[in-house]
Amino acid sequence: xxxxxDVRIKRVYDLPSEIxxxxxLVDRLWPRGLHKSDVKMDYWLKNAAPSSDLRHWFxxxxxxxxxxxxRYRHELSEGNSDIKKLENxxxxxxxxxLYAAHDPxxxxxxxxxxxxxxQDI
Length: 121
What we know:
The protein has helices at 52-58, 65-78, 81-92, 108-117, and strands spanning 7-11, 22-25, 43-44, 95-99.
Protein backbone atom coordinates (compact mmCIF):
# COMPACT_ATOMS: atom_id res chain seq x y z
CA UNK A 1 0.00 0.00 0.00
CA UNK A 2 1.38 3.43 -0.99
CA UNK A 3 0.77 6.80 0.61
CA UNK A 4 1.35 10.44 -0.36
CA UNK A 5 4.77 10.50 1.30
CA ASP A 6 5.74 7.12 -0.15
CA VAL A 7 5.22 5.27 3.10
CA ARG A 8 4.28 1.67 2.47
CA ILE A 9 3.34 -1.17 4.77
CA LYS A 10 4.20 -4.83 4.54
CA ARG A 11 4.08 -7.88 6.77
CA VAL A 12 7.48 -8.66 8.20
CA TYR A 13 7.00 -12.28 7.06
CA ASP A 14 6.75 -11.22 3.39
CA LEU A 15 9.86 -11.34 1.25
CA PRO A 16 11.83 -8.10 0.98
CA SER A 17 11.85 -6.28 -2.33
CA GLU A 18 14.28 -3.89 -3.99
CA ILE A 19 11.50 -1.29 -4.08
CA UNK A 20 10.89 -1.32 -0.30
CA UNK A 21 13.29 1.53 0.39
CA UNK A 22 14.19 1.86 4.07
CA UNK A 23 12.60 -1.05 5.95
CA UNK A 24 11.41 -0.24 9.47
CA LEU A 25 9.95 -2.75 11.92
CA VAL A 26 7.27 -0.89 13.90
CA ASP A 27 6.20 -3.61 16.36
CA ARG A 28 6.90 -3.32 20.08
CA LEU A 29 7.58 -7.07 20.35
CA TRP A 30 9.82 -9.18 18.13
CA PRO A 31 7.75 -11.14 15.55
CA ARG A 32 7.08 -14.75 16.50
CA GLY A 33 8.95 -17.46 14.68
CA LEU A 34 11.62 -15.19 13.22
CA HIS A 35 15.26 -14.84 14.14
CA LYS A 36 16.85 -11.42 13.83
CA SER A 37 19.00 -12.77 11.02
CA ASP A 38 15.79 -13.69 9.11
CA VAL A 39 14.54 -10.10 8.92
CA LYS A 40 15.94 -7.62 6.43
CA MET A 41 15.35 -4.29 8.13
CA ASP A 42 17.17 -1.03 8.58
CA TYR A 43 15.58 0.02 11.89
CA TRP A 44 13.44 -1.38 14.66
CA LEU A 45 11.44 1.51 16.13
CA LYS A 46 9.54 -0.05 19.03
CA ASN A 47 8.17 3.25 20.29
CA ALA A 48 6.33 3.90 17.03
CA ALA A 49 4.07 0.97 18.00
CA PRO A 50 1.04 1.27 20.28
CA SER A 51 1.73 1.23 24.00
CA SER A 52 1.63 -2.16 25.69
CA ASP A 53 -1.59 -1.21 27.47
CA LEU A 54 -3.29 -0.21 24.21
CA ARG A 55 -2.01 -3.29 22.40
CA HIS A 56 -3.39 -5.57 25.14
CA TRP A 57 -6.72 -3.74 25.16
CA PHE A 58 -7.11 -3.99 21.37
CA UNK A 59 -6.07 -7.66 21.28
CA UNK A 60 -6.56 -7.66 17.47
CA UNK A 61 -10.34 -7.59 17.95
CA UNK A 62 -12.01 -5.92 14.95
CA UNK A 63 -14.86 -4.85 17.25
CA UNK A 64 -12.35 -2.52 18.97
CA UNK A 65 -10.92 -1.18 15.71
CA UNK A 66 -12.53 2.27 15.60
CA UNK A 67 -11.69 3.02 19.23
CA UNK A 68 -8.20 1.59 18.80
CA UNK A 69 -7.52 3.98 15.90
CA UNK A 70 -8.57 6.97 18.01
CA ARG A 71 -6.48 5.93 21.00
CA TYR A 72 -3.41 5.06 18.93
CA ARG A 73 -3.59 8.33 16.97
CA HIS A 74 -3.71 10.14 20.32
CA GLU A 75 -0.52 8.33 21.36
CA LEU A 76 1.12 9.17 18.04
CA SER A 77 0.17 12.84 18.35
CA GLU A 78 2.09 13.03 21.63
CA GLY A 79 5.23 12.27 19.62
CA ASN A 80 8.50 10.60 20.56
CA SER A 81 11.96 10.11 19.11
CA ASP A 82 10.88 7.11 17.00
CA ILE A 83 8.11 9.11 15.33
CA LYS A 84 10.62 11.89 14.63
CA LYS A 85 12.98 9.29 13.14
CA LEU A 86 10.21 8.08 10.82
CA GLU A 87 9.45 11.65 9.77
CA ASN A 88 13.13 12.25 8.98
CA UNK A 89 13.32 9.02 6.98
CA UNK A 90 10.22 10.09 5.01
CA UNK A 91 12.01 13.25 3.92
CA UNK A 92 14.74 11.14 2.31
CA UNK A 93 12.55 8.77 0.30
CA UNK A 94 10.46 5.64 0.44
CA UNK A 95 10.04 3.75 3.68
CA UNK A 96 8.25 0.47 4.32
CA UNK A 97 6.70 -0.10 7.72
CA LEU A 98 6.98 -3.75 8.71
CA TYR A 99 4.41 -5.33 11.03
CA ALA A 100 3.64 -8.87 12.19
CA ALA A 101 -0.16 -8.84 12.69
CA HIS A 102 -2.14 -11.38 10.66
CA ASP A 103 -5.05 -9.09 9.83
CA PRO A 104 -4.24 -6.81 6.88
CA UNK A 105 -7.32 -4.64 7.53
CA UNK A 106 -7.03 -4.09 11.30
CA UNK A 107 -3.44 -3.42 12.32
CA UNK A 108 -1.49 -0.53 13.78
CA UNK A 109 0.72 -0.12 10.68
CA UNK A 110 -2.32 1.13 8.74
CA UNK A 111 -2.98 3.77 11.37
CA UNK A 112 0.68 4.75 11.54
CA UNK A 113 0.91 5.01 7.76
CA UNK A 114 -2.10 7.31 7.60
CA UNK A 115 -0.80 9.40 10.51
CA UNK A 116 2.59 9.83 8.80
CA UNK A 117 0.92 10.62 5.47
CA UNK A 118 -0.95 13.50 7.13
CA GLN A 119 2.20 15.11 8.50
CA ASP A 120 3.28 18.39 6.93
CA ILE A 121 6.86 17.58 6.05
